[in-house]
DNA sequence: CGGGATTCACG
DNA sequence: ATCGTTA
DNA sequence: TAACGATAGTGAATCCCG
C-alpha cells in the first residue's frame, strides 16, 4: 500500500522550501519495548554512542602531546586543514600543523607512523572545530565527562550492559541544545556547523568515527532544528532530490573553474595550476579566497539558504543560464567563511570526498533518530533499538528510496513501524539487486554447494525496472533509478500486449536489449546506446528493443521481495506473456552440474550475451535484496573465462594529472598500438584502473623521464578534445592491458581504415595488468592485430553474418 | 551550426 | 571496472 | 572476508555558447 504521502514529484519539490518554516512539532512516540535478542549483540555492528567514546578516549590517551591551543581561540578550523601540500609559501606562515592526512595517504608511507600522526591531527582538528562552531554545550560536556568514564569502560567492555547503558544515559542526558543553537530553529542550521562536521569526518579514515560524527551532528539538528534535517541529509549525501526526479545541477569542472576565477579575481590559468597541484577544486577555492582581502564579514550561510541556491542552480536553464549559474556560485562563494568554500565547491562538483556516502548516512540517521526519540522521553536508547532502527531504515530505504518521504516520517512518527508506513510502491523505483562477479564455474559450484540454484542469460543491454501503478500508469526506470519512460515509449505502450488480464499493478526487473527485427537477434550494447534519449516518439524509434524479464518484485498490491525466486518466477510467468521481439523471459536453466552450466554458458555467448547470472532459487536466501551486491546472485562473465578475454600490449603515449588521492602522480594514461606499415603509434584508449598505488608511483617515476613537449610526428592521435593528454612521452614503455570488448570509435585512431573508413578502434573497460619490460615499443600489438580482434568479435556477435561485411552493418544506424 | 561541457548508460 | 581501508 | 568509498574507462545524446 502507498505511504501516507503520495510520492508525487511536484509535491516533493516544493516541500523543501516549506520545510524549515512549517515544522511539525515532533509527535511523542508510543513506547514499545523490543524484545532483546541475543543474536543481536553478538552481531555485526552494534554501534552506539557508547562505543564511539571508547575510541576517542583511547586516542586522547595515546597522544598526550596533542596541541590544544587552537581550541581556545576562535580560530577558523580551515586554517589548518586547508593546507594540503601547498606550494604557495605566502599563506603558509601562520600554521603549525605539519601535514594533512590526505598528503600522507597518497605517499603510501609506513603504516604505523602514519597512524600516530593522523591521530594527533584528528584531535587538534576536532577540538578546534568544536570550539570554532560551538556545536553545543553538550559537546563540551562530553569532553569533560570523558576522562572519568574511561576507566569504567575499558575495564568491563565485554559484557556490562548496565555500565554501558549508564554511560549512554549520561551522555544523552547531557545532550541538550545549548544557547548557541537556539537560533538554529529560526534561521536554520548554520552551514558552518555542517562544514565543521565534514571537516571532522574528512580528518579520519576510521569508519566508526565517521559514523559517530555524522550521527552526533544529526542528533544536534534533530534537537535544535528538525526542520533542517531533510536538507542536512541531502547536503550530506550531496544530492538535491531523489534520483528519479532527474534534478541535475548542470555544473561541471569547467564552469566551476570559471566561477572560482571570477569570484576571486584570479586568472583561469592560475586556478587550473592550483587544481593540478592540489587535486581538489574545493581547496583551490578556499585558498584563493584566503588570498583576497575581506572587506567585511558577510552574513553567515545557512543550510536552507545553501540548499535553495543549489536548487536554483539546478532549475536554471535556457539562454545565458550558465552565466546565471556562475552568478549564483559567485554570490555563495562571497558569503563563505572558513572551510565553507571548500565544501560548497565539492558539493557543486558532485563529490564530497570525505569517505562518507549513502550507506553510512542511513546508519547515522537511524542512530540519531533512535537516540533522539529516547531523549525526548528522557530515556536511554538501547543498543537493540539502535541496531534494529538501522536495519529498519536500511530496508525501508531500499524499498522506497526517497528521503522526501522517509525523513518527515521519521521525524513525525519515529523509526518504529516505519517498515509498515513506507513500503515498496509502484511508481517509486527501488534499488536493483546486484550480482557478485566470479571468475570460474567452480567458484559458483563452491558457493552453491548443496543449494538449489538457477542460471539465466546475462543480456548486454540496459537494466529496466518497469512499473505499473494501479491507476494504469507505467514507468521505466534505469539501474540508477532515473526515469527512462521518455526514452522507451515503445516499452510503455507494448505493456498492454504482454500483461495478462488479472495483472493490475507490478514492478518487474528486466534488461532492455537492442533487437534486430530482420534477423530476430540481439544486437550489441553499442547499438542500443545510439538510441535517442529524450522525448522519443514511438513512431520514429529507429533502434528497436526487446525486453527480457527476469524477476517480479511486486504484483497486484503485494510485495514479493521476501518470496523465493522460484515463487517470484512462477508468478512472473503467470502474470505476463511473451511476445517475440518485444517481451521475452530471460532464458534460464535449472541444471546443477558443471557440464550443464558450461554448456549453457557457451550457448549464452553464442546468443550474444555477456555470460550467465547464477542465482539461489529456493528458501529465504533467494529473496530479492535491493541494493545489495549479494552472494546469492553471481555473474559469470565470458571475458573472465580463460581464452575469451582479450589482452593487448600497448605503448604509453601520454598521461593525465591525477586528482584526489592521485594528486602528484599521473591518474590516467593514453595508450597506443603500433602500425608497422605507417611506422606510427595509433591511440587506442585511456586507462586509469587496475593500478595499485605503488604502480602509480613507479610509473610516474619512470615516465616523467620520458616527457616530451609535444607529440611525435609519428603519433596518430586526435588533434584536440578531452583526450589530449596533459603530458606526452617518448614511445618507450609497454604495458599489458585486459579488455572486455572492442568498439568502433570516433575519437581513437587505432586500425583506422581497416574495418571502417573514418572510425578507429577502442577498448571497452580497459584495465592495466602489468608492465612488459621484455617488449620494445615496436613489438606492441599491431593495428592489424587489433582489427583482427575486432572482426573476430563481430563475427560471434553476428553469428553467420559473414565477416567484415557484416561488421559495418551493425553500426549503420 | 559546430564544438565544448555535462550527464547518463554500460562495466 | 579495480584498489585500499576498516571492521 | 565483506562492506564501503574513492579512483578510473568509452560513447552517445543533449544543452548552451559563440
Automatic annotation (TrEMBL):
Q: Please indicate if the UniProt record lists DNA-binding as a keyword.
A: no
Biased segments, Basic and acidic residues type: 48-70
Highest taxon in the source lineage: Eukaryota
Q: Which GO terms describe its biological process?
A: cell division; DNA biosynthetic process; DNA recombination; DNA repair; Okazaki fragment processing involved in mitotic DNA replication
Chief subcellular location equals nucleus
Q: Where is the composition biased (Basic residues)?
A: 101-118
Recorded hits in InterPro entries, A to Z, give:
ATP-dep_DNA_ligase, DNA_ligase_ATP-dep, DNA_ligase_ATP-dep_C, DNA_ligase_ATP-dep_cent, DNA_ligase_ATP-dep_CS, DNA_ligase_ATP-dep_N, DNA_ligase_N_sf, NA-bd_OB-fold
User: Signal peptide location in the record?
Assistant: none
Where can this protein be found?
Nucleus
Keywords, alphabetical: ATP-binding, Cell cycle, Cell division, DNA damage, DNA recombination, DNA repair, DNA replication, Ligase, Nucleotide-binding, Nucleus
The segments labelled Disordered in the record are 1-125, 139-160, 789-813
State the EC number(s).
Answer: 6.5.1.1
**GO function terms (MF aspect):** ATP binding; DNA binding; DNA ligase (ATP) activity
Do you know which Pfam families this protein is assigned to?
A: DNA_ligase_A_C, DNA_ligase_A_M, DNA_ligase_A_N
- Residues of the ATP-dependent DNA ligase family profile domain: 538-675
Q: Which family does it belong to?
A: Belongs to the ATP-dependent DNA ligase family.
- State what protein this is by name: DNA ligase
Species annotation? Saitoella complicata (strain BCRC 22490 / CBS 7301 / JCM 7358 / NBRC 10748 / NRRL Y-17804)
Amino acid at each position: 500500500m502507498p505511504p501516507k504521502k503520495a510520492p508525487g514529484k511536484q509535491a516533493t519539490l516544493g516541500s523543501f522550501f516549506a520545510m524549515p518554516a512549517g515544522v511539525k512539532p515532533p509527535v511523542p512516540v508510543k513506547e514499545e519495548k523490543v524484545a532483546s535478542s541475543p543474536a543481536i549483540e553478538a552481531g555485526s555492528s552494534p554501534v552506539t554512542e557508547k562505543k564511539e567514546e571508547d575510541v576517542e578516549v583511547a586516542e586522547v590517551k595515546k597522544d598526550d602531546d596533542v596541541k590544544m591551543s587552537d581550541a581556545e581561540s576562535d580560530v577558523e578550523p580551515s586554517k589548518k586543514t586547508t593546507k594540503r601540500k601547498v606550494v604557495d609559501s605566502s599563506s603558509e606562515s601562520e600554521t603549525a600543523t605539519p601535514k594533512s592526512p590526505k598528503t600522507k595517504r597518497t605517499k603510501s608511507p609506513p603504516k604505523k607512523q602514519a597512524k600516530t600522526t593522523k591521530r594527533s591531527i584528528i584531535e587538534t582538528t576536532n577540538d578546534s572545530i568544536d570550539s570554532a562552531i560551538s556545536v553545543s554545550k553538550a559537546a563540551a560536556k562530553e569532553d569533560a565527562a570523558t576522562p572519568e568514564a574511561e576507566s569504567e569502560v575499558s575495564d568491563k567492555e565485554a559484557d556490562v550492559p548496565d555500565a554501558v547503558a549508564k554511560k549512554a544515559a549520561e551522555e544523552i542526558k547531557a545532550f541538550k541544545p545549548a544557547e548557541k543553537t537556539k537560533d538554529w530553529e529560526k534561521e536554520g542550521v548554520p552551514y558552518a556547523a555542517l562544514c565543521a562536521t565534514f571537516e571532522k569526518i574528512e580528518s579520519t579514515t576510521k569508519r566508526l568515527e565517521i559514523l559517530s560524527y555524522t550521527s552526533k551532528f544529526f542528533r544536534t539538528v534533530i534537537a535544535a532544528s528538525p526542520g533542517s534535517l531533510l536538507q542536512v541529509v541531502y547536503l550530506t549525501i550531496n544530492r538535491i532530490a531523489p534520483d528519479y526526479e532527474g534534478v541535475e545541477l548542470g555544473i561541471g569542472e569547467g564552469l566551476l573553474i570559471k566561477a572560482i576565477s571570477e569570484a576571486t579575481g584570479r586568472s583561469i590559468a592560475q586556478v587550473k595550476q592550483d587544481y593540478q597541484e592540489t587535486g581538489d577544486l574545493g581547496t583551490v577555492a578556499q585558498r584563493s579566497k584566503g588570498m583576497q582581502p575581506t572587506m567585511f564579514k558577510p552574513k553567515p550561510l545557512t543550510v536552507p539558504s545553501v540548499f535553495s541556491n543549489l536548487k536554483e542552480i539546478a532549475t536554471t536553464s535556457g539562454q545565458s543560464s550558465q552565466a546565471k549559474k556562475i552568478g549564483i556560485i559567485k554570490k555563495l562563494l562571497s558569503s563563505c567563511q572558513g572551510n565553507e568554500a571548500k565544501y560548497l565547491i565539492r558539493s557543486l562538483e558532485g563529490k564530497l570526498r570525505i569517505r562518507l556516502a549513502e550507506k553510512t548516512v542511513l546508519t547515522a540517521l537511524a542512530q540519531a533518530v533512535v537516540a533522539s526519540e529516547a531523549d525526548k522521553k528522557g530515556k536511554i536508547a538501547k543498543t537493540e533499538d539502535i541496531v534494529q532502527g538501522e536495519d529498519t531504515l536500511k530496508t525501508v530505504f531500499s524499498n522506497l528510496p526517497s528521503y522526501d518521504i522517509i525523513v518527515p516520517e521519521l521525524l513525525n512518527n519515529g523509526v518504529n513501524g516505519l517498515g509498515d508506513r513506507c513500503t515498496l510502491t509502484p511508481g517509486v523505483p527501488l534499488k536493483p539487486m546486484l550480482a557478485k562477479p566470479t571468475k570460474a564455474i567452480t567458484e559458483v559450484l563452491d558457493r552453491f554447494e548443496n543449494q538449489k540454484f538457477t542460471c539465466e542469460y546475462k543480456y548486454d543491454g540496459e537494466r529496466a525496472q518497469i512499473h505499473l501503478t494501479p491507476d494504469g500508469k507505467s514507468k521505466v526506470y534505469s539501474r540508477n533509478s532515473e526515469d527512462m519512460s521518455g526514452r522507451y515509449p515503445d516499452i510503455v505502450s507494448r505493456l498492454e500486449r504482454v500483461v495478462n488480464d488479472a495483472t493490475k499493478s507490478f514492478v518487474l526487473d528486466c534488461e532492455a536489449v537492442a533487437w534486430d527485427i530482420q534477423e530476430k537477434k540481439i544486437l550489441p550494447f553499442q547499438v542500443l546506446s545510439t538510441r535517442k534519449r529524450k522525448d522519443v516518439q514511438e513512431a520514429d524509434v529507429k533502434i528497436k528493443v526487446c525486453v527480457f524479464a527476469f524477476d517480479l518484485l511486486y504484483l497486484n498490491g503485494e510485495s514479493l521481495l521476501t518470496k523465493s525466486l522460484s515463487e517470484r518466477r512462477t508468478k512472473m510467468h503467470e502474470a505476463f506473456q511473451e511476445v517475440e521481439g518485444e517481451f521475452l523471459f530471460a532464458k534460464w536453466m535449472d541444471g546443477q552440474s558443471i557440464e550443464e552450466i558450461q554448456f549453457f554458458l557457451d550457448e549464452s555467448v553464442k546468443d550474444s550475451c555477456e555470460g550467465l547470472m547464477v542465482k539461489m532459487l529456493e528458501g529465504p536466501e533467494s529473496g530479492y535484496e535491493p541494493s545489495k551486491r549479494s552472494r546469492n546472485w553471481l555473474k559469470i562473465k565470458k571475458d573472465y573465462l580463460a581464452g575469451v578475454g582479450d589482452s593487448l600490449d600497448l605503448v604509453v603515449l601520454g598521461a593525465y594529472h591525477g586528482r584526489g588521492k592521485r594528486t602528484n602522480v599521473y591518474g590516467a594514461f593514453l595508450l597506443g598500438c603500433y602500425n608497422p606499415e605507417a611506422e606510427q603509434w595509433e591511440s587506442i584508449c585511456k586507462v586509469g584502473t587496475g593500478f595499485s598505488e605503488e604502480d602509480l608511483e613507479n610509473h610516474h617515476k619512470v615516465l616523467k623521464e620520458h616527457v616530451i613537449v609535444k607529440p611525435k610526428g609519428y603519433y596518430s592521435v586526435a588533434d584536440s578534445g578531452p583526450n589530449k593528454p596533459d603530458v606526452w612521452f617518448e614511445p618507450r614503455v609497454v604495458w599489458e592491458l585486459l579488455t572486455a570488448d572492442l568498439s568502433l570509435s570516433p575519437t581513437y585512431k587505432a586500425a583506422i581504415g581497416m574495418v571502417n573508413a573514418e572510425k578507429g578502434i577502442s577498448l571497452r573497460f580497459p584495465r592495466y595488468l602489468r608492465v612488459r619490460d621484455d617488449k620494445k615499443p615496436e613489438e606492441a600489438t599491431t593495428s592489424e592485430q587489433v582489427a583482427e580482434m575486432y572482426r573476430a568479435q563481430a563475427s560471434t556477435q553476428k553469428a553467420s553474418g559473414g565477416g567484415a561485411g557484416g561488421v559495418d552493418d551493425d553500426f549503420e544506424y
